[in-house]
């Protein structure tokens, strides 16, 4: 598998508890390189667009409110098989189901407030990266 890029968000529950560095340490320990990173406060429109795939789900309103409740850190990660490698270190969506050693097992508070986002496929990774970063900001 070739070198790949994925998009990551350190979510409001984690930035609020000052966990950015602890999460970055797990990302780097998993062999992923942080090639772009910035702290932003998402607008409602950005959050609704970003999670548009979930717009008909019952938790959509709550999810958008959560994502704009505090700043987030958006990142691009690069490495071997990065999309799956990051999802493996993130752990299951619901922290109750997450494996030992994963970010969500260690830090997530609930299925909604689960500390991190990671892209789920190459197409969504490319779209999500382009939504938040210009090419010049990616320093591989
Ligand atoms: P993400 O997109 O954030 O990386 O998380 P994921 O792939 O593991 O989970 P996904 O099914 O895409 O859900 C997106 C986010 O919506 C929130 N959620 N809340 N209350 C609920 O039942 C519920 N289910 C999902 C979580 O923040 C989840 O990460
Ligand atoms: Mg998802």
Automatic annotation (TrEMBL):
Keyword terms = ATP-binding, Cytoplasm, Kinase, Magnesium, Metal-binding, Nucleotide metabolism, Nucleotide-binding, Phosphoprotein, Transferase
Q: Give the chief site where it resides.
A: cytoplasm
EC number(s): the record gives 2.7.4.6
**Which Pfam families does this UniProt record tie to the protein?**
NDK
Task: Summarize where ATP binds, as residue positions.
Answer: 11, 59, 87, 93, 104, 114
Localization per Swiss-Prot or TrEMBL: Cytoplasm
Domain (Nucleoside diphosphate kinase-like): residue spans on this chain: 3-140
Q: Which Gene3D superfamilies match?
A: Nucleoside diphosphate kinase-like domain
Q: Which family does it belong to?
A: Belongs to the NDK family.
Q: What does this protein do?
A: Major role in the synthesis of nucleoside triphosphates other than ATP. The ATP gamma phosphate is transferred to the NDP beta phosphate via a ping-pong mechanism, using a phosphorylated active-site intermediate.
NCBIfam families in the record: PRK00668.1 (NF001908)
Could you describe the subunit structure of this protein?
A: Homotetramer.
Protein name, please?
Answer: Nucleoside diphosphate kinase
Q: Which organism is it from?
A: Aliiroseovarius zhejiangensis
Gene name of the record: ndk
């Amino acid at each position: 598998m070739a070198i790949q890029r994925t998009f990551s968000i350190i979510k409001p529950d984690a930035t609020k508890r000052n966990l950015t560095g602890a999460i970055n340490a797990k990302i780097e320990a998993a062999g992923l390189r942080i090639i772009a990173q910035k702290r932003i406060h998402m607008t409602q429109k950005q959050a609704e667009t970003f999670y548009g795939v979930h717009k008909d789900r019952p938790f959509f309103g709550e999810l958008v409110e959560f994502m704009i409740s505090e700043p987030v850190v958006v990142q691009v990660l690069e490495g071997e098989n990065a999309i799956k490698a990051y999802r493996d270190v993130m752990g299951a969506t619901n922290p109750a189901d997450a494996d030992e050693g994963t970010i969500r097992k260690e830090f997530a508070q609930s299925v909604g407030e689960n500390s991190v986002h990671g892209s789920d496929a190459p197409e969504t990774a490319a779209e999500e990266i382009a939504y938040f970063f210009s090419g010049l900001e990616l320093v591989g």
